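Follow-up to my earlier ticket, as requested here are the two runs.
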Amino acid sequence: MVSGVVVVLQFLLFLVIGVMLFSYYQHFPLGRELEQINRIFPIFIVEEMPAGISGLIIAAIFAAAMSTLSSSLNSLSSSSMNDYYRPLIRPEATDAHYLRASRICTLGWGIILILVSFLAKNWGEVLQAGLTITSFTMGSVLGVFLLGLLRKKQSQNVGLFAMVTGLGVMVFVGLQPGIAWTWYVLIGSSATLFSGLFLAKILVLFRKA
């Protein structure tokens, strides 16, 4: 609940910064065209702020980026090791082996994220691209959560089927140019929830038969 409040205040801060930058450059034009409008804030930090403050802000940006990246790499590597490699490939290996494998897995995920970052340059504005990617997957997560609330004794296989179905629907929706990203969470959560409820109903009917 606290996180929800903080996120609202965080995005409010982003919007206020954008309005203030727009107002500033209306009175003091930049004098050159930008290939991407996202560069306006870094340019303001480097060119308009005092040296000490701009250095602190740049250091804070790098620290936040490194923190997010390290936690993402650790989560991806841990999930890959504990959910797939350890139980399915090498269930009885030593801890030293798992440590080496986790390091290799972290390196692999790092390479994948670097490749994705190169592709992301063509995805438009940073904020909209980030919200689009988040909305693409969060619908399935919300749908599984709602499914768990409605059917608390349901097996995890139904939840996995529902999530895969929701993601499949979102892949189809993402290929349609006329659907805005703001609808992604609603579509994904609805597809996940109703497909899970449908499968659960089918399983109940089979058991009775």
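Run two:
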Amino acid sequence: MICMAKALSGGFVPVGAVAMRKHVMDAVFSRMDRAVVHGSTFSKNNMAMAAGLATLRVIEEEKLVEHAARLGGELLRDLQALAAKHEFLKEVRGKGMMIALEFGSPKSLGLKAAWGLLETANKGLFCQMIAIPLFKNHRILTQTAGHGMNVLKLLPPLVIGERDRQWTVSALDAVIADCHKVPGSVWELGKTLAGHALKAKAG
């Protein structure tokens, strides 16, 4: 059984679905008294189903799965190449358009000390130093993969093009490079974030 939601309507209408093989469906809803095994106040909503079907049609007609595999693979390779340039970037992994950038302690003593201060204030704070300027200066929205993690996730729309790919790589290259300049404007942001984190701990 596969649960799916969110992007199923292209992001415009709340919608969810459960996909299963026919024999599983028949086993779950085998009798009238089992008809209420699963239900929802908003299930069988006509508008949501129309949006979901339209999205599935676009995915198939525009070959977005194949597009995501090809362009996502190129984006992944481009970002993996950045790891050789930047001490903070340890690994880039992903599949299709789902990509994760993992950051870690660098080798250089000065950078290592700066990293340690941020980690002491709040584990995973370094990713915010990447995410904030990425959005503010380059209009790229990213998110940390979880609390206390130094992993930033990229989940771009399946319809991005070659220009978007180049823009994303260039923006990440620039922002990560700025983090290697200590002191620097990005580290002023880091000090502010660390200060707020320490105040929150003390409170």
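The only thing I checked on run two: The domain at 64-202 is CATH 3.90.1150.10 (Aspartate Aminotransferase, domain 1). Let me know what else you need.
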